[in-house]
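Follow-up to my post from last week.
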Amino acid sequence: MKKKPILVIKSGKSAAGARAASSHTGSMTGTNTSYDTAFAKAGVIRADTVEELFDSATAFSTQPLPKGPNLCIITNAGGPGIIATDEAEFQELRLTTLEGSTINYLREKLPPAASTHNPVDILGTGNGDDYTVTLEAVLKDENVDMVLIILTPQGMTEPMKTAEGIVRLHGDNPTKPVAAVYMGGTDLIESTIYLKDNGIPCFEFPERGVRSLSGLWKYVKLSQSIEKKTTPRIFPDINKEAVADIFESVRNKGRVTLLGSEAVAVARAYGINAPITYTAFSVNEAKRLATKIGYPMVVKITSPDITHKTDIGGVKVGIKNENELVVTFKEMMSAARKHYPNAKVVGVDLQQMATPGHELIVGVSKDPQFGHMAIIGAGGIYTNILKDVSFGLIPVSTEEATEMLQNTKIYQIIQGARGQEGADIPMIIETLERISALVSDFPTILDMDINPFFATPDGISAVDVKITIKMQEEER
Amino acid sequence: MKNIYVTSSHERVGKSTFCLALALRLKKEGINVGYFKPISDQDEDSDSLHAKNLLKMEDDLTVINPVTISQWEYDIESKEIKSHLKKIKKSYNLLDKKYDLLIIEDCRSMGYLSSISLSSRELIKELDCEVIMLVSGLDETHLDQFVLGESFFNDVGISVYGGILTLVPLEIIERIKELAEKRLSEHGIKLMGVIPEKGDLTAPNVEELCSSIGGRVLSGSSFMDNIVEDYLVAAMEMDNALKFFRRSINKAVIVGGDRPALAIAAMETNTSAIILTGGILPPTTVLATSEDRGIPVLLVSEDTYSVVQKLTQAPVQGVLTVTQTDRIEEWDKIFNSIDYKGLIEKLS
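User reply:
Got it. Predicted complex:
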């Protein structure tokens, strides 16, 4: 476990900001996602604003780390209490349910109109004693991991006495982090300074107080997650030589993008289930190769220059016989000539039919700053619209791959939502790990997408694999 | 010794470069080789000039290329045609005496000037030579051009020695070669060789590209010999830019001068040059990156569309010049796989 938390502010989050950062430094900045992913992997906490950076730093420098996300808010004004509650939820803290004994105790000690549930509202009439009685009780509560005290100056309010109480009680219970929000401008300067001087983070607004505490919890979560992550799995059944040969032959042909059949062969060499695919250069060759695959089959146009094949009718599923194959071959060639007159069209890929299932995407892209970044999520032609994907830095372990998949919405669906069949989730995770192994062995891969790959209860099938490699190893 | 007449089915199949490379190869083998281009379509023919320099010919350019007939001179009088033929024969006789072997290059393609009876077949009949025909091997359909070309010459009693497929995509080279050997032998045509479409043979370098588009070199001037095999207009969203850039190699990226971030992204990938359009100077960081990565940045005043149009209408081709030592070496290697020895034996 890392001993010192690292807080980072990274500018250039928006598209325009990234452009400005790039022009300013003369190098390509990674995407916002890649920074988030890399920070998470390294256990670094990212602050969104300079204010948040300092607020978190203040909490880290004076408060212990919380054991859990359970926050209790004590306030003498309803509005600020609810604002803090909202912010706590946004920051993924949990507004804890107080123990029954605590609630009963507070009911005895506080006026009848006070709210003794979290957020605890000691009312505008609350004085210094009300605050200290409440704080003492909730600090003892097993359900509470951290406390935020909000104070607004009202008729009976005793800011300094309250501050003294907070300092004393925190001293008595040093294992639970505490932060204060003193919302009252110049009236509360003296007590605010007193709190800060005595190691209690104190802010003017509720959101800042919540974020300072949530920073502590984020760090605990990150550290726990890093501890859980073991080293990447080693797969004994891979064929490195086969992949090296394919890449060499592709480069010798002056290409950096693999044909469908080549990309499928690379996937298969790393134990990723993909339907057998052959490239046919002519109608006669297609007829010959079709006998090896058997009907029905899938036919796809093969050209390093045509990336969105479906858009021009370049993918046909369920070709039943030789006649259909010949007609399809010719139709696809005409379509390619019409839509991409200058494209180099090699022929067609003939592919075994795969059992359809949930459509997922899994892939890798090389980030200029952080290296290879893995992606997993909802696939198919709507990937770019749904944007339901999650990222991780290569290499990924089983735990990381699992976490990545769990972070997507489609994860709920592939478990078998609303009576639908689920999918072989361990195999999906293993596929991501196998891609991680492939890219770790061959950093020459710049981009790799399997989209879609079909996930069924019986396994997966990578039906469309795309790979781009470097021409020379020394390239960036 | 007879001479070699190099003709082609179409323009832009790499004929001039092939002629010069063949001449250099034969010269290396100890043959006193000269170059002759009977007719050109431009004054001060650049092919002839390159040949004169490369082969160190002391002859006047008007001897190496005696006649110019452009497409705006199809209304030529018949007595002028006769005088042109006379000039051609005079130059030919001079050079033929001086050199062991002449490489004679066709103007444009075999059919050029047929309607005024000054095409390759009229010239070949006047000259003592064996004929080689170049045809682009972009795909199978181009094989037909050999058969068509052969009958074009056979009609007037000229036999073609053999043919060469040029610019064959590496992807299909083995298949095309096999197919060409089979189909051409059925028509009695000898396939002498297949030349791949490779950047280091025919693609221009940044220097040639820059002079063709009239660019100003802002940085990376030490890397002007980078080869340019592809052009890519950068108008995509930044998020997708890298994926696009990575799919193309040895490319010149055409990008508006007001989008420096895209230029920087392009320089992260296999890029030969950046063409900044609109006359907008980039931030100095872009220029520093260009020097760091060895990628020249060229500035043009035209907009992106105009530059693309220029490059599409008149694609820039790499030529063989004295300074192109790498390209000369690559061509020399190509001749290891071209069956020209039989032709030389036949000539002598």
